[in-house]
Write a structure and sequence with these properties.
single chain, mainly beta, five-stranded parallel β-sheet, 3 helices, 19 strands
Length: 345
Amino acid sequence: MNLRFLPRLAPLLTSLLLSPLVHGALPTDNPIQAFYGPGTYAWTDEIGWERVVDVTEFGAVADDGLDDHPAIHAAIAAVSAAGGGVVYFPPGTYHLSDNLVLSDGVVLRGAPPPTPVAAPAHERGDGTPLGAPAQLADYAPPSKLVFPEYVYNPFSPQANDTAFRIITVDDPLRASNWGLVHLDTNHARIINFPNVTPNSAFEQTNLNFHPEFDQRNVVIFGLRGNHMARPDPAVPSGSQEAAQRYPARGSANINLAVYENLLIANNRLNDDVSGNFEMPGYRLSNGSFAGTPPGESVTFKYTDLYGIVVNRFNQYSGGGSLQPHPECLSRNPPAGNRRARQLAV
């Protein structure tokens, strides 16, 4: 049933859609333990892998080129209201016009990439084959999420809020048991504290000292991500052209702050540079031309930023340094210190 034009029916069908008896063909296994072996990362069992909805039941249509943003958020809302679980994306390309906001207990899961022929480098210690490892050059999750692209046009500048999207959560303090699994994402970075940025250039957070900071059990697994950038908020300025952009210093493809249990693993980032764009005659803020000789093009490179940043708290960042505080990796930090435990990146 297509619910795109019948949104009022979605809450009535939520209990049915979450039933494994209705969608027995959908994946209900724990993909982390399916990849690494039974019992590994035991905390991932707290995620409701067995409670699955198909995003197409809410009106998302793969490969039609239309906006699936409302349908995807309707599925997220239904799963969240039912106590958490998985929104499954069958193979195909889904388009989103705006930021993707997850809720507590919700995981977005795509179809797994094809498993390669077993080879020694792709086996567990007991000889059983792993799933598709992300280090393979042809690693390609078949379920794709595509966000708006920034198109450089000096004659018709595009506003930043029409591109440079994010994947985030609605509650940066308490959202737990959420994540992304087996998805190919394009033009959206992942950050779970989008509004907690005390420095306009460097993305840092004070969440670790917030008394209610308790994000737990976050999984970013089997992801292929490209063109995941944040533009520098200070560009353009002065005499710069309105269409000029530059990657923000200190930003990252994946930037998360988590109190306990975080797994970022088997992901492939920035293997497609086709989205980098040239800006001829790039001006500096003082009006002079950049480059040698002056006036040559400057390239916006989506790869000119960090890949993964975890718990970069500004109290210990040294003004942007990525050196972690020693207690960040402690399994049992002293009382009152709210820093992540059991990180696996």
